[in-house]
């Protein structure tokens, strides 16, 4: 953890100076008082300032970044990371020359990496945040592909008058399919099977 030491007339003043340098708030740090202030003799001789050591706590963002760096170093690949954080989640965008190996077949490797990052980043955290990993815009491209596929297969189910069963998908991708077709009044969708082989069925309305 990053830590700095500061001095001030009071403990609070020393802490505030440290927080200003770190660019964080009190909830983001741990404070260790190294030395209490002393007024000395008659408030003149032997006056000592307060000294504190302020440690920056590792939150989900910092832990996720640290975990991913260790993974990429072990894989010996160059990856550029862009991290954004809000109250509920941390979004990590990855870019680099060998991203195919991180995406995997239909995003399976990326989803597995995201799962592991969530476990690591939220371990022993008071406030848990969802970690979302995207690689060079793969998620938006995949979403567009699934939406087009949903419409195509819905038309197929209607024309043939029988169910169309899609390949197994994760919950997020199934949600995209359901959402893309929820406004249609000629078909309906439902999921069947157990994870990780749960799949969507598109069925024509009789």
Number of helices: 6
CATH topology of the largest domain: GMP Synthetase, Chain A, domain 3
CATH superfamily of the largest domain: K homology (KH) domain
How many DSSP-defined strands? 9
The domain count comes to: 3
Strand order within the widest beta sheet = 1-3-2
How would you sum up the global shape?
elongated
- Between the first and last Cα atoms, what is the distance in angstroms? 62 Å
Supply the CATH class of the largest domain. Alpha Beta
Q: Would you identify the regions where 5 or more consecutive residues have pLDDT less than 50?
A: none
Give the overall average pLDDT. 90
CA-atom Rg in angstroms: 26 Å
Q: What sequence of helices (H) and strands (E) makes up the elements?
A: EHEEHEEHHEHEHEE
Fraction of residues in H or I helices: 25-40%
Give the name of the CATH architecture of the largest domain: 2-Layer Sandwich
Strand proportion, as a percent range, falls in: 25-35%
Largest sheet, in brief, is: 3 strands, antiparallel
The structural class is alpha+beta
Structural features, described:
It is found in: Cytoplasm. Belongs to the KhpB RNA-binding protein family. Keywords: Cell shape, Cell wall biogenesis/degradation, Chaperone, Cytoplasm, RNA-binding. The chain is an alpha+beta fold and 206 residues long. It has three domains: 3-56, 2-Layer Sandwich (Defensin A-like), CATH 3.30.30; 60-136, 2-Layer Sandwich (GMP Synthetase, Chain A, domain 3), CATH 3.30.300.20; 140-204, R3H-like domain (Ribosomal Protein S8, Chain: A, domain 1, 2-Layer Sandwich), CATH 3.30.1370.50. It has six helices and nine strands. The strands form three sheets. Strands 1-3-2 form a three-stranded antiparallel beta sheet, with helices on one face. Strands 4-5-6 form a three-stranded mixed beta sheet. A three-stranded antiparallel beta sheet has the order 7-9-8. Strand 8 and strand 9 (199-204) form a beta hairpin. Helix 2 packs across helix 4 and helix 5 crosses helix 6 (171-181). The longest helix is centred in the C-terminal third of the chain and has 23 residues, at 138-160. It starts with a strand and ends with a strand. The mean pLDDT is 90.
């Amino acid at each position: 953890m990053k830590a700095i030491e500061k001095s001030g007339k009071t403990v609070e003043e020393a802490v505030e100076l440290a927080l200003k340098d770190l660019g964080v708030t009190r909830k983001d740090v741990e404070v260790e008082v190294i030395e209490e202030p002393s007024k000395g003799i008659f408030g003149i001789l032997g006056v000592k300032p307060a000294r504190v050591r302020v440690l920056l706590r590792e939150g989900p963002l910092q832990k996720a970044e640290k975990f991913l760096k260790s993974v990429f170093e072990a894989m010996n690949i160059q990856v550029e990371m862009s991290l954004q954080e809000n109250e509920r989640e941390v979004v990590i965008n990855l870019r680099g020359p060998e991203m195919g190996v991180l995406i995997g077949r239909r995003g399976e490797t990326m989803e597995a990496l995201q799962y592991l990052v969530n476990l690591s980043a939220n371990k022993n955290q008071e406030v848990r945040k969802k970690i979302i990993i995207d690689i060079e815009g793969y998620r938006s491209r995949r979403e567009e592909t699934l939406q087009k596929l949903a419409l195509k297969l819905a038309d197929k189910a209607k024309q043939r008058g029988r169910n169309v069963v899609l390949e197994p998908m994760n919950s997020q991708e199934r949600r995209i399919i359901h959402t893309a077709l929820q406004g249609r009044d000629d078909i309906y969708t439902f999921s069947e099977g157990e994870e990780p082989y749960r799949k969507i069925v598109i069925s024509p309305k009789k």
